[in-house]
C-alpha cells in the first residue's frame, strides 16, 4: 500500500505504465562539438539549403539595382546621400552603396559556394560508381513493377533473348545477362545522361560563381568624351571616369590610341511624322594598337573591339569651340566644350570657365541651339537637331570660380554663389549671342569671345571584361546540362524468357526514376517487336547473323 506521504508520481509500487506514474523523459545520445559540426555540415550541403541560399543571393542583389553603387555611379551615391540625410547613415552602415562587396552579400555568396561544393562531391562520387556498376539483377516478381507485359511467343528462349539483346543494344542500353533457375533474363539500363546533365548544370553554376568572384577583380570600365579630331590614349589618367577591379593595375590596362575622325548622324528628312529623328549614328575612328593603325567605326549596339577591350557608343552632342581674348587681343582660353543635350532637338547646356588671363575670373552659362527658333513668347528653342541655324547664348558671371578650394568641381556646372552676373536675364546687359565666326565683347571691357567652330562629340564607354568567354561557356554548359536532365529518361528494363512447351514465355518490365508517362508504351513496343522479330533458321544452335 502506498504510504500517506507518497504520491502517484513518486510511488515506486505502481507499475511503470500506470496512468498516474510519471514517465521518464526520453533521452538520446548527446552531440559533442564534432557531432554538431557534422550536423551543421550536413544541413549546409543539402540541396534544400543550396536552393534557399540561391534565392537569398537573388534577393540580396535587389538593393544593388535600386540604390546607387559606388563602383558604378559615385556621383549618384553623393546625390542620394544628399537627398536622404535622415537615413543615409543606415545605408552606409548596411553597406548598401557597395552591395556586391558587402560582408553580408559575401557571406551568402561563400555559403552558397560551400553548399554547392559539399553537395556535388558525394553526388559525383556516387554517379561515377553507378556508371561503373552493372545493371541490377532481375527482380523475382516483374509483375509488381509499374510497367509490365507478359506474352507467349514462338521460338526458343535463347533466340528470343538474343533478339532482345540486339534490340536493346540498338537503343543504347547497357546490358547484363543473367541465368538462374532455368530462366534467362537480361537487365538493361540507360539514361545516366540525365544525372550527368544534372551534375553538369550544377557544376556550371558553380563555375559561374567562381568566374564572377575572381574575374570581376580583373574587369574595368572607363568613360571618355571625344570631340572630333581629338585623340585618346588608353591610360588611367586619360579617362574621364575609371572604375577598376580590385586586382587591376596600370600595367594591365591595354595600350592603344583612338582618334575620333568624324561623327556622322543621319536624320529622317522624308517623313514629316518622324522629321529630325536620328536614323543612324556612326563614329568614324582611327585606332592604333600594337604598332598597327586601322580605320573603323562604332555604332549603337556595334562596339569596336581593340586590344581586349570593347568600345561602346553611349551618346553624342555638340562641342562648340569658344575662344576668349583679353583686351590686348591675346588668346587666354580656347577649347571645344561638350554641351549636354537637353531635348531631342539637341538644345544643349554648357559651362565656360576662364580662371586666368583676364582682369577677373569669368564664368559663363551657355545654351546652344543647332537650329534656332523663337517661340511666340520670345523664348528660344531648337526646332531641328542638325546645324541649320546654330546660335550660342551666354549668361556671364564674374567673381570666384571656386577652383582653388581643393574640392572637386564638375565641369558641367557653375557655382554662382560667389559670383556676380554681369550679362543675361535679370541684368542691364542682354545675354551674349554668337553664330559661327562671330565675336562678342565681354562686359566691363574684360575682352572678347568668339565662336570659331561647332564640332560634334561622342561619349564612349571602354570596357574590359575577362569573364565574358568563361561565363558564356559555363552558361552554355548549364543550358545543355539542364536540357539533358529534363529530356533524357532514366529507365531500367528487364526481359525474362522461359520455355513453356513449344513456345517461350516472354516477360518485359520497366522501372523509371521519376515520372515517365511513356514507360508502359515503351515496354509494350519492345514486347511487340520481340514477338515479331525474325528468328535464326534452325533454332537456337544456329549462329545469330
UniProtKB/TrEMBL annotation:
The keyword Cell membrane does not apply. It holds the Pfam family ResB. The keyword Transport does not apply. The chain crosses the membrane at residues 50-67, 103-121, 199-218. One of its GO terms (biological process) is cytochrome complex assembly. Residues 1-26 are annotated as: Disordered. Residues 47-522 form the ResB-like domain. GO terms for cellular component: membrane. It is a multi-pass membrane protein. Residues 1-15 have a biased composition (Low complexity). InterPro entries: Cyt_c_bgen_Ccs1/CcsB/ResB, ResB-like_domain. It is found in: Membrane. Keywords: Cytochrome c-type biogenesis, Membrane, Transmembrane, Transmembrane helix. PANTHER family: CYTOCHROME C BIOGENESIS PROTEIN CCS1, CHLOROPLASTIC. This is Cytochrome c biogenesis protein. It comes from Compostimonas suwonensis. The lineage of its organism: Bacteria, Bacillati, Actinomycetota, Actinomycetes, Micrococcales.
Amino acid at each position: 500500500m502506498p504510504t500517506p506521504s507518497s504520491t502517484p508520481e513518486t510511488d515506486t509500487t505502481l507499475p511503470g505504465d500506470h496512468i498516474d506514474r510519471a514517465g521518464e523523459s526520453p533521452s538520446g545520445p548527446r552531440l559533442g562539438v564534432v557531432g554538431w559540426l557534422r550536423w551543421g555540415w550536413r544541413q549546409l550541403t543539402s540541396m534544400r539549403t543550396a536552393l534557399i541560399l540561391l534565392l537569398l543571393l537573388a534577393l540580396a542583389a535587389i538593393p544593388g539595382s535600386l540604390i546607387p553603387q559606388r563602383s558604378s555611379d559615385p556621383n549618384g551615391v553623393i546625390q542620394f546621400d544628399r537627398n536622404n540625410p535622415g537615413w543615409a547613415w543606415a545605408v552606409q552602415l548596411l553597406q548598401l552603396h557597395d552591395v556586391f562587396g558587402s560582408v553580408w552579400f559575401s557571406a551568402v555568396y561563400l555559403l552558397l559556394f560551400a553548399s554547392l561544393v559539399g553537395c556535388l562531391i558525394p553526388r559525383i562520387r556516387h554517379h561515377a560508381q553507378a556508371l561503373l556498376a552493372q545493371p541490377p539483377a532481375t527482380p523475382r516478381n516483374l509483375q509488381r513493377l509499374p510497367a509490365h507485359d507478359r506474352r507467349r511467343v514462338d521460338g526458343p528462349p535463347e533466340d528470343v533473348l538474343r533478339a532482345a539483346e540486339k534490340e536493346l543494344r540498338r537503343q543504347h542500353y547497357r546490358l547484363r545477362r543473367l541465368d538462374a533457375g532455368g530462366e534467362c533474363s537480361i537487365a538493361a539500363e540507360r539514361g545516366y545522361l540525365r544525372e550527368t546533365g544534372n551534375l553538369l548544370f550544377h557544376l556550371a553554376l558553380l563555375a559561374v560563381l567562381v568566374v564572377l568572384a575572381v574575374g570581376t577583380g580583373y574587369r574595368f570600365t572607363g568613360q571618355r568624351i571625344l570631340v572630333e579630331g581629338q585623340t585618346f590614349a588608353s591610360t588611367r589618367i586619360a579617362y574621364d571616369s575609371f572604375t577598376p577591379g580590385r586586382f587591376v593595375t596600370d600595367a594591365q590596362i591595354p595600350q592603344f590610341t583612338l582618334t575620333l575622325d568624324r561623327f556622322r548622324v543621319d536624320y529622317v528628312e522624308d517623313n514629316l511624322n518622324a522629321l529630325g529623328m536620328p536614323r543612324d549614328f556612326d563614329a568614324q575612328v582611327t585606332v592604333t594598337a600594337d604598332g598597327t593603325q586601322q580605320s573603323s567605326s562604332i555604332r549603337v549596339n556595334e562596339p569596336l573591339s581593340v586590344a581586349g577591350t570593347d568600345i561602346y557608343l553611349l551618346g553624342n552632342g555638340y562641342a562648340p569651340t569658344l575662344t576668349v581674348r583679353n583686351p590686348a587681343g591675346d588668346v587666354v582660353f580656347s577649347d571645344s566644350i561638350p554641351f549636354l543635350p537637353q531635348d531631342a532637338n539637341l538644345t544643349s547646356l554648357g559651362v565656360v570657365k576662364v580662371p586666368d588671363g583676364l582682369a577677373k575670373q569669368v564664368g559663363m552659362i551657355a545654351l546652344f541651339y543647332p537650329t534656332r527658333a523663337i517661340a511666340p513668347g520670345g523664348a528660344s528653342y531648337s526646332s531641328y537637331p542638325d546645324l541649320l541655324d546654330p546660335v550660342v547664348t551666354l549668361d556671364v558671371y564674374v567673381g570666384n570660380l571656386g577652383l582653388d578650394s581643393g574640392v572637386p568641381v564638375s565641369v558641367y556646372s557653375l557655382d554662382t554663389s560667389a559670383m556676380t552676373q554681369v550679362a543675361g536675364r535679370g541684368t542691364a546687359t542682354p545675354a551674349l549671342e554668337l553664330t559661327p565666326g562671330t565675336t562678342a565683347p565681354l562686359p566691363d571691357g574684360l575682352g572678347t569671345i568668339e565662336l570659331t567652330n561647332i564640332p560634334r562629340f561622342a561619349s564612349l564607354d571602354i570596357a574590359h571584361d575577362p569573364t565574358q568567354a568563361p561565363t558564356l561557356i559555363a552558361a552554355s554548359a548549364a543550358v545543355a546540362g539542364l536540357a539533358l536532365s529534363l529530356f533524357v529518361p532514366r529507365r531500367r528494363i528487364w526481359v525474362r524468357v522461359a520455355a513453356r512447351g513449344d513456345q517461350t514465355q516472354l516477360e518485359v518490365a520497366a522501372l523509371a526514376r521519376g515520372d515517365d508517362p511513356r514507360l508502359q508504351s515503351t515496354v509494350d513496343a519492345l514486347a511487340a517487336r520481340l514477338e515479331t522479330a525474325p528468328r535464326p533458321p534452325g533454332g537456337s544452335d544456329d549462329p545469330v547473323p
